[in-house]
Amino acid sequence: MITTCKDFSVKNKGIALNDILVRIKPVVSEVKTFGDSAVIKYTKLYDGFNLSKNTMKVSPKEIKEAYAKTDAKVVRALLDAAKNIRSYAQKQMPKSWMTTIRKGVTVGQQVIPLDRVGCYVPAGAYPLPSTVLMTVIPAKVAGVREIVLCSPPKPGNYAILVAADIAGASAIYKVGGAQAIAAMAYGTQTIPKVDKIVGPGNIYVTAAKKLVYGDVGVDFIAGPTEIMIFAGRGDPAMIAADMLAQAEHDRMASAILVTTNRKLASSVEAELQKQLRKLPTKDIAAESIRKNSAIVIAQNVDEAFDFINERAPEHLELMEERYLSKVKNAGAIFVGRYSCEAAGDYAAGPSHVLPTLGAARYRAGLSVLDFVKMPSVQKLTKGGLAGLKKTICVIARAEGLEAHARSVESR
Questions:
Q1: Are 202 and 185 part of one and the same domain?
Q2: CA dist 339 to 260, 332, 347, 365, Å?
Q3: pLDDT (tens digit, 9 = 90+) per residue, 62-77?
Q4: Are residue 87 and residue 178 in the same domain, yes or no?
Q5: Among the four residues 38, 70, 179, 399, which has the most C-beta atoms within 10 Å?
């Protein structure tokens, strides 16, 4: 498990979507063509659930029942987490502005929320009410008029319904998988068409998002979850615990420690085996650690951060704040020994929906910015246009676009 930056090889190269795309293309096509009947067909086939047009949408009665069947401690925790997520999103919210850049030329930017978005929330081995909060609340803060939520019809997922109510979802549908993505992308008789789909999911959900992209916006095409930890020093038990917290997500998850300290590397390796023995999710976590994880020894700090930035991890923990300026590529950064990634998963405030597979090289995690458009605004007076006339006409004619120049001259 211990290796070096030079010898490290990526064992988990992500998800091979080609085969899956072929398999789910008919699902997406049928939902697009036949709407509710196709959704009902594939919900029965893949989820074993008998759905009808009348039961597809979660009713107010079902939400009330969900509160009654959800532990009061869970409800309070969801409310507390929601408050932090909402506060963070409000700080992120951009503002419209206008400014005069020269006499007679005023430019600016309008901030306009998307009209309708779809949030997908997994409910497989680990139902994720936290994902409800992390997707719906930023959309709500952004001012999205209608927020549609789809989650598989798994009995007992009451906390997901409670979280959706707390977050402010407009409607909740008991539909999962590729059929849910297709339904939100194209609309059915019951589920409305949305402008953008966000949220994590399994490989079938990911493939469906890839297929519908272009007909509808998506956040990103995500792969297995991942974490990197940089520690020149630290508590081996704590570092191992953080690696296992990521490894237990699924068998394809990746947890990598990068260090310049060989003694720490050996200690963490021993701790991983020790803690695995007592972990209830050890079957999943052990496979993730064995197949997709590593302890990487760098010769120095510069080599360590070259390694980290090249791979652009979804989550990056830094045991020491002094190295924060060295980070160029990461989906979310956790600074200091008490800033564990699990805090970000649930309650610190920023969304836990993050780019994977190196996508952090070009974008960060889900935020209010995913739910707004910011078109430019330009307002020119007669004098302002006259002041730009020569510049515009010279460039237009240099490009061979005579009508552009005449458009200005006609005024």
A1: yes
A2: 21, 11, 12, 17
A3: 999 999 999 999 999 9
A4: yes
A5: 179
Q: What is the pTM of this model?
A: 0.94
For 31-90, the pLDDT digits (tens) are 999 999 999 999 999 999 999 999 999 999 999 999 999 999 999 999 999 999 999 999
**Could you write out the DSSP letters of every residue in 252-315?**
T-EEEEEES-HHHHHHHHHHHHHHHTT-TTHHHHHHHHHHH-EEEE-SSHHHHHHHHHHH--SE
- DSSP-assigned letter for residue 59: P
Is residue 339 assigned to a domain? Answer: yes
Give the end of a domain, one of 183, 218, 253: 218
Residue 390 covered by a domain: yes
Question: Which tokens hold the place of 319?
Answer: 């045991």
DSSP 329: S
**Residues annotated as part of the active site:** 314-315
- Measured CA to CA, the distance from residue 287 to residue 283 in angstroms comes to 6
Residues ≥6 apart with Cβ < 8 Å to 211: 21, 24, 25, 28
Q: How many domains does the chain have?
A: 3
Contact between 319 and 231 (Cβ < 8 Å)? yes
Rounded Cα distance, 119 and 181, in Å: 9
Structure tokens at 144: 């999205």
Q: Are 188 and 31 in contact (CB under 8 A)?
A: yes
Pair 107, 139 in one domain: yes
Q: Under DSSP, is residue 144 helix (H, G, I), strand (E, B) or coil?
A: coil
Residue pair 314/246 in contact by the 8 Å Cβ criterion: no
